[in-house]
Write a structure and sequence with these properties.
Number of helices: 2
Structural class: mainly beta
Radius of gyration: 23 Å
Strand content: 25-35%
Helix content: under 10%
């Protein structure tokens, strides 16, 4: 590897450097062979460095350049881009079209999180949901009325997702067999509620009601850490700042093939109401929440 004549030896966790060199006047740039890129223009004896080797790859598939950190195997990517205020496209780095996207403008706090979900409406590319609210869907020019493709996100002129010179972050997901699933179900209002097939045992599920009385249609989260066993009564609302809650009428049961609604609360199981969901399996090799110290 090339150290640009700045560092000449790595021993364990110690980086040794030579005092007799001419410092670069600009930051080094990465290429396809880069594994670790360090650059510092700090004062002598400073230990502050910036690691930019894992900041993502430049993606020029769209009409706007993006920086993408993607894991196509698990169907998820993080996309950073600067908006242009016009109908446009951005590369997302995945091998299939995203089924759910969370987008937030970063250079101002006076904007909302907006969500694309493939089952939000019959024409999901024309609408968006607020992740930081319990609102019903909003119809506006978020996605240029065009669904994402296997390589591109479509962006409209709505300022929260594509203001000129605004900086944005987008989290993109698509279903992966045995790991993740994005879909919808219809509630039945019964304590033994609708069963949803994901094809795996979920470790995390988030649902959102799309219509009816929106008072309780929060982004409701259940997981196998807060509630390790069925029924999973402990949860969070992603759109609220409250502490976790414990409610038997708002519970879920996880199985080897999916999850079942186990409460009558309209937040997850109102009769005749459609809900979208995102679900993930636990694919970690180590159970970090368990005390293995003995």
């Amino acid at each position: 590897p090339s150290y640009k004549a700045t560092m000449y030896k790595f021993i364990s966790k110690i980086a040794k450097y030579s005092a007799s060199f001419t410092p670069s006047t600009s930051a080094f740039t990465e290429d396809n062979d880069t594994r670790l890129l360090l650059h510092s223009n700090a004062d002598n004896n400073s230990t502050l460095f910036v690691d930019s080797s894992d900041g993502g790859d430049v993606n020029n598939n769209g009409s706007i350049e993006s920086i993408v950190a993607a894991n196509p195997t698990y169907g998820q990517s993080i996309v950073s881009y600067t908006g242009n205020g016009s109908n446009t496209t951005v590369g997302h780095g995945l091998s299939s079209a995203p089924e759910m996207m969370l987008v937030k403008r970063r250079d101002t706090s006076a904007t909302n999180w907006w969500v694309y979900h493939k089952d939000n409406t019959s024409a999901p590319a024309t609408d968006a949901l607020r992740l930081d609210g319990n609102n019903a869907t909003t119809d506006d020019n978020f996605w240029n009325d065009t669904a994402p493709s296997s390589s591109l996100i479509n962006l409209g002129t709505y300022g929260d997702v594509n203001a000129n010179n605004g900086t944005f972050i987008a989290y993109c997901f698509h279903s992966v067999t045995g790991y993740s699933k994005f879909g919808k179900y219809t509630g039945n209002g019964n304590a033994s509620g609708t069963s949803v097939t994901t094809g795996f045992e979920p470790a995390f599920v988030m649902v959102k009601g799309l219509s009816g009385d929106m008072t309780h249609k929060h982004w409701t989260i259940r997981d196998n850490t807060r509630s390790p066993n069925n029924d999973r009564t402990k949860g969070l609302h992603a759109n609220k700042s409250e502490a976790e809650f414990d409610a038997s009428n708002n519970a879920m049961a996880f199985s080897s093939t999916g999850f079942q609604l186990k409460g009558t609360d309209p937040g997850i199981n109102e009769n005749g109401i459609e809900y979208i969901y995102m679900a993930f399996a636990d694919k970690r090799e180590y159970a970090y929440w368990l005390d293995q110290s003995g």
